[in-house]
Amino acid sequence: MKHNAKGDGLDVLLRALRLPSFVACHADVAKQAEGQGWNFKQYLSHLAEQELAERKQRKIDRLTRTSKLPREKILSTFDLSRMPDKVRRQVPSLCEGDFIGRAENILAFGLPGRGKTHLICAIGHELIKRGYKVLFIPAYSLVQKLLIAKRDLCLDKELRRLDRFDAIILDDIGYIQQEREEMEVLFTFLGERYERRSVMITSNLVFSQWDKIFKDPMTTAAAIDRVIHHATILEINGSSYRNDVASKLVKEHT
Ligand code: ADP
Ligand code: MG
After folding, report:
1. 211 in helix, strand or coil?
2. Whose CA is closest to atom 23 on ligand 1?
3. Which entry of 56, 121, 133, 206 is 20 to 30 Å from 96 by CA?
4. Which of 73-82, 163-172, 199-208, 215-224 has the lowest mean pLDDT?
């Protein structure tokens, strides 16, 4: 391969090695190296570090896209001080993701508007930063997907596809159509992941009300058993964030 003075040949080599940041930056970094009197090793390390950092960022971007997580529901926009002490203490270690290695679950309970979805999503984003594959899906939408797959005789395939994710966030498990078919596929899904893969569930129904989801007492007990067996429970009480913001606005304008 012919290398010309402009470094095009070098760029071809770097592209073939899949080093896009080297391609984009080597000329500028060379100038910087000259200006600051770096040796060859310093120059090369700088480029390698940049390549690695950008590779990591690209991976995070990719995982964030496939996760379908709402972009704005992150930890920095979440007011943790509104959470009960216990929840505040639980959050940092959950963000580390060790629970995923143990195929454990997270359950966030609380009345509507308390921040369950936001907090669980924020944890999801933190997990992605650590390289975990996360999927966010409203529970009713997962159930619809599974029902369609079942009808088309490809439920197994769909479950295997979902298996790629280290953690699946099932948002609002209380809002599922209460038909037998619906609860059956949900139950199959939970059983499939049990002790192998994590689920993160938000619900405004406490366990004693889960018979509204799973109908008969046996299935309800079995479903609870599967999710609770290895789980961290976040009990999110307190007042509604939306109501508090609304009443603050009202006060400010009256
Ligand atoms: P839930 O899932 O419990 O019904 P959400 O997570 O959807 O509640 O929260 C309702 C709204 O209030 C969302 O817009 C969310 O971003 C916001 N919110 C709730 N709690 C907090 C909090 N502690 N800090 C910042 N925003 C919050
Ligand atoms: Mg919610």
Report:
1. helix
2. 79
3. 206
4. 215-224
